Amino acid sequence: MRVIMMVLGGTLLLSGCSLDPHYQRPSAPVPAAWPQGASYPATAQAHSPAEDIPWREVMVDDKLRQVVEMALSDNRDLRKAIADVEAARAQLGEQRATLLPTINAGIDGDRSRSLISGSDSTVLSSSYGASLSTSAFTLDLFGKNRSLTGAAREAYLSSAATATSTRLTLIADTATAWVALATARSNLTLARQTMESAGQSLAVTRSRLRNGVASAVDVAQAETVYQQARADVASALTTEAQDKNALDLLAGRPVPEALLPGDVASLSQAVKPVAAGISSAVLLRRPDVQAAEHTLKSANANIGAARAAFFPSITLTASNGLSSEALSSLFSGGAHVWSLAPSVSLPIFDGGANLSALRYAEAEKQGYVASYEKTVQTAFREVADALARKGTIDEQQAAQRDYVAAAERSYQLASNRYQAGVDTYLNVLDAQRTLYSARQSLFSLEQSRLDNLITLYNVLGGGGK
């Protein structure tokens, strides 16, 4: 046992060296503050970073909350991400085990009858042994295993950050899909109302034709509008079904009808706004940025492991135990036996394999530096885009509401003029198409406003709580 303890003690004493390069986080290749200009809202210091605001305080509609909770419970992408974290944790444990010797316990016995030299007699001999042993344990003198363990640890942390990023994206995607379904339902209602109105107009125009106050051209034009409205209803039904399917996929199971949204206009208070603050340093706390940095740190540790391959390795095989000719006296009167067999291996010629491995590790790190910087740049662009949308959406919605009101007046005037016989039915149809398109655009803008609130919360790193 003393020999094994000596091996363990020597391991702890001799495993303090590391050849990892000094790690320094790359500077963020983005401005320190968010963009300013006519397209952007005025910025102010945020009371709380988005990542500190629980998603339930942002998604305040009760139906939406329940659908998001379904997704967090049953979404398969999130389950896969969580499983990947557990796999990375297991790999870390496996790699960490290489830092310590493997100790095995063994009991063996041998019993044989052999010929006595110089006679015809035989003798019966027995031997029994019990031992603790460590086999081919490599002392981590130059930190190779420590570096590989560090790389595995960073890979695990990267996987955990990726799972968090998947969770945040899932919350945002689910909320966005829920809002998209509300918009699809609004468009379906509008299409049905338009088809009903077009059907009534067609009936009236046919009646006017029979009474000699409308032309066959008017009837044909009314028929065209009605059939187009029928096609729009069919298309809107398809969109609604597809949006419902997309929501079910995100939720992991069919969303009950009771949790589905109404029309998009009823969701104006479903999502609360969050402030972006002033500094772009908040991006470094995003889980996808953290995942990219952990991957970079893992590559940095791999360089240390590649450097250690140039140095000698010392391998120990040791055993410590008891030996006796009788099993009954093995543990009471057995002889103490031990062995220690160190070996040293010094790389002399490997055809350039170690050098190539080091160059690969260094090049891989540079690639991950670029990936990290690109992740930060992408994050900055996502926030800047969301802020630009936030800065203009209110004005666009106000203009669109005025446009809808003007289109309604135009349609009413054109209808009155046609009824009075002072205008053609073509002008009525043009006004009707304009009004239909204007109302659709108003729905889309409300969807965009809600999507922007969701997106801004997501790209600022919100959703982890």
UniProtKB/TrEMBL annotation:
Instruction: Indicate where this protein resides in the cell.
Output: Cell outer membrane
> Coiled coil where?
none
Q: What membrane topology was assigned to this protein in its record?
A: Lipid-anchor; Peripheral membrane protein
Q: Which PROSITE patterns match?
A: PROKAR_LIPOPROTEIN
Record's keyword terms, sorted? Cell outer membrane, Cytolysis, Hemolysis, Membrane, Transport
Gene Ontology MF annotations? efflux transmembrane transporter activity
Q: Which family does it belong to?
A: Belongs to the outer membrane factor (OMF) (TC 1.B.17) family.
Supply the name of the protein.
Protein CyaE
Q: Source organism lineage? A: Bacteria, Pseudomonadati, Pseudomonadota, Gammaproteobacteria, Enterobacterales
